[in-house]
Amino acid sequence: MQRRAILGYGAAGAGAVALMLFVGWWQVDGPGGPEPIGQRPVALTAMDFRLTDHEGNVVGPETLIGRPTMAFFGFTYCPDVCPTTLSDISGWLDDLGDEADEMNVVFITVDPERDTVETMAEYVGYFHPAIRGWTGPEEQIARVADGFRATYVRVPTESGDYTMNHTASVFLFAASGRFVTMIDYHEPREFAVPKIRRALEEETEGAT
Amino acid sequence: MKKHILTGTLTALLTLGGLSVPALAGPEDVVVENAWSRASIGMNRPGAAYMTISNTGDEPVTLIGLATPLAMMPEIHETKTNAEGVSSMSPAGEIVIAPGESIALEPGGLHAMLMRLQEPMTEGDTFPLTLLFDDGGEVTVEVPILSIAARGPED
Predict the structure, then answer these.
(1) May I ask which residue range the UniProt record assigns to the signal sequence (chain B) (predicted)?
(2) 3-class DSSP state for residue A165?
(3) Contact A88/B89, CB-based, under 8 Å?
């Protein structure tokens, strides 16, 4: 009797493990898995999140509608990629000159624990004045990243701190909120500025 | 040893004088050029420094580590961006530079990661950074600290 019970538990356990493996496969690699990465972000009009900009204003996707938008993810404790991206963007904005005034440029942190509103304010102050810094509760950041099809993950470092792996591309949206294209990290500046102009022109076309 | 000190001092003097000269010291065959770094905000964030390291000799050289009074944990790290556009950063380990070859420490790739800063990195200052090689050789360069928004050694 006891032995049968054990066998029964064993079979149930094996069944449970098999089910878990199947569910795992289904969710990760199988038909239930996420869309292939590299998928386009949804339109800003289809996103729903609440963040705070570096001046303390409540902002969301609707804040960006009406003007073309350049948006990217990062964190202020990032020593290499983020200052480089912010400097690149500052350079593109300088190249665009007056046209840059017609754009939203938003730096969204993936590290809200360290990147408070005050921290964001100080950090963006070192770059082009058009750049806005957005932060907010972790679950809201997760919603933004989900809409952008962006990813981020916290990784401990040997120094006892942590760093963030994150999507480093720059996203471009038309004034309507429609996703236009993205500028990959490392893309030469001669490709970036025409891409930004394309997003700006879509606005003009939309208006006529 | 005497030569190292002399060359280091010379480099420091020339760098302070605003002259951009290749820093030539230590293992005679290693030349470091275009060193630069970005200013930091305070001391909590890690800094990063960049440069080109050339091996002008006939034998490979192996870079095994870094030392600087500026940071408790200086280390060569490498940023990688995968096909999905996700950037990550990890220690690069030992770096072998073949004879006649150079490696570039540049934004988005290899960089000298300066963890646990001992003082803020202030624009306009310089700091000494020592490259340690597996044969016991050392090369010290004075790294200029540029703006936090600098994009390269010329900015």
Answers:
(1) none
(2) strand
(3) no
Those residues of chain B that have pLDDT short of 70 are: 1-26, 155
- Residues of chain A whose beta carbon is less than 8 angstroms from a beta carbon of chain B are 37-38, 76-77, 79-81, 83-84, 86-88, 90-91, 122-123, 126-127, 151, 155, 157-159, 161, 163, 165-169, 182, 184-186
Superfamily of domain A44-207: Glutaredoxin (3.40.30.10)
The total number of structural domains in chain B stands at 1
Please report the pLDDT score of residue B114 as a whole number.
Answer: 96
Instruction: Identify all chain A residues contacting B84, using CB atoms and an 8 Å cutoff.
Output: 37-38, 151, 167
Q: Is residue B151 situated within a structural domain?
A: no
Contact A77, A166 (CB under 8 A): no
Indicate whether B6 belongs to any domain: yes
Supply the ipTM of this predicted assembly.
0.78
Within a domain: B154: no
B5 Cα to chain A: minimum distance (Å): 30
Q: Where are the domains of chain A?
A: 1-33, 44-207
Report the pLDDT averaged over residues A129-140: 97
Residue of B nearest to A150 (CA): B86
Per-residue H/E/C for chain B: CHHHHHHHHHHHHHHHCCCCCCEECCCCCEEEEEEEEECCCCCCCCEEEEEEEEECCCCCEEEEEEECCCEEEEEEEEEEECCCCEEEEEECCCEEECCCCEEEECCCCEEEEEEEECCCCCCCCEEEEEEEECCCCEEEEEEEEECCCCCCCCC
